[in-house]
Amino acid sequence: MDLFERLSPPPRILMGPGPITVYPRVLQAMGNQLIGQYDPVMTGYMNQTMALYREIFKTNNDATVLVDGTARAGIEAVLVSLIEPGDKVLVPVFGRFGHLLAEISERAGADVVTFEVEWGTVVTDAMLEKQIIRHKPKLLALVQGDTSTTMLQPLEGAGELCKKHGVLFYSDATASIVGNSFETDKWQLDAVSVGLQKCLGGPSGSAPVTLSEQAVERIRQRKHVEAGIRTDSHQAGQRSRIRSNYFDLGMILDYWGEERLNHHTEATSMLFAARECAQLNLQEGLDNVIDRHKRAGDALAAGLRALGLSLFGDLSHKMNNVVGVVIPSYVDGEAVRQAMLTQFNIEIGTSFGPLHGKIWRIGTMGYNARLDTVLLTLVALEALLVQSGGSIKQGAAYQAAVERYDVGE
Ligand SMILES: Cc1ncc(COP(=O)(O)O)c(C=O)c1O
């Protein structure tokens, strides 16, 4: 092992379920020199970032900030800040990430109720209402796009149900934001968290979060400013202290707010990345970005079908940006994935839990939601399937993808 080998990652094309190849402008933004955390230029960037993510989330929520860490840092910050020990939390599970929300809620001390539907399907409003009436939860935690199954959970009706029954509504939209519609205010969400490494087109390591006034109010009731920076003007909240210091959204909001109360040291290079991702997507226009994801995703799906492959799950609820492909019985799925990587520099994904070894997951996200990356992936896969003895009409996948993509124009 040469410890001083020069860093030289191969030029991979990341076509898995995320992380994905980052927009070059985002990498350039991260290469900028640091500035101090209270430099007015830096606090100006922080304010801009808040405003940019209000647009990304489609919200007027003042409380729109970055949590430093990967997407699960955002999830954990929301859940540990909203949940008090003993609170009932309802978590519908339609893939791996529902299990994650349940596990983090449990660790935050919640009395968690889950209900699981078959992977490859989504939850209906009727199922949700039945469970809400039965369990009377304080919080509903619902994934929007679960990359483990590629399904996109409809959220339109859930917010109304939550309001009707006095339930706080949180969604993890890490995998789906800007690749599919998302409407924080219109869908009456109280909390949303995401990550950069999917359709937003950045690296993992920053988790944008937005909170409704009601959610902020709940967090304020648990206010606790740590010793050493606490002054006489800081009143502790009436309710229990948030169990994590790092993920205490009350303190994080005070750091991002007018008081600029010191908490963590902001991960400046990640803030540069998050800010650039938001700018890029908003400059392209959210509707255009979603449309580009849909066209690339549809073209990929058409090409995969032309290879004689079956697609996984209820396709009427598939995310635009990732597809599950049933691994045909005549190939070794892992060997094909390895060959895609080593021979073509293209990464596609494997799967988890009950789907492990059964499906590949191929993503068309962010910078890679393009026709050329779709065609490269299809041509490479076709070559490997033919080599494995598949009876495939050569060139048909290319043709189908190009035709499908052009229809979108
Ligand atoms: C829906 C969803 N939530 C959460 C995560 C976890 O993200 P991270 O690995 O950045 O913590 C992922 C990652 O794939 C995801 O797809």
Description:
Residues 43-348 form the Aminotransferase class V domain. This protein has 409 residues and is an alpha/beta fold. The chain has two domains: 23-282, 3-Layer(aba) Sandwich (Aspartate Aminotransferase, domain 2); 286-407, Aspartate Aminotransferase, domain 1 (Alpha-Beta Complex). The chain is 40% helix and 13% strand. The protein has helices at residues 24-30, 40-57, 71-82, 96-107, 125-135, 156-165, 213-220, 249-256, 268-284, 286-306, 333-344, 371-387, 396-407; strands at residues 13-14, 63-68, 88-93, 111-116, 139-143, 145-146, 151-152, 168-172, 191-193, 206-211, 322-326, 346-347, 359-363. The strands form four sheets. The chain has a seven-stranded mixed sheet, with helices on both faces. A hairpin with a 4-residue loop joins β6 and β7 (151-152). α9 packs across α10 (286-306). The radius of gyration is 22 Å and the shape is globular. The model has no long low-confidence stretch (mean pLDDT 96). Bound molecules: pyridoxal-5'-phosphate.
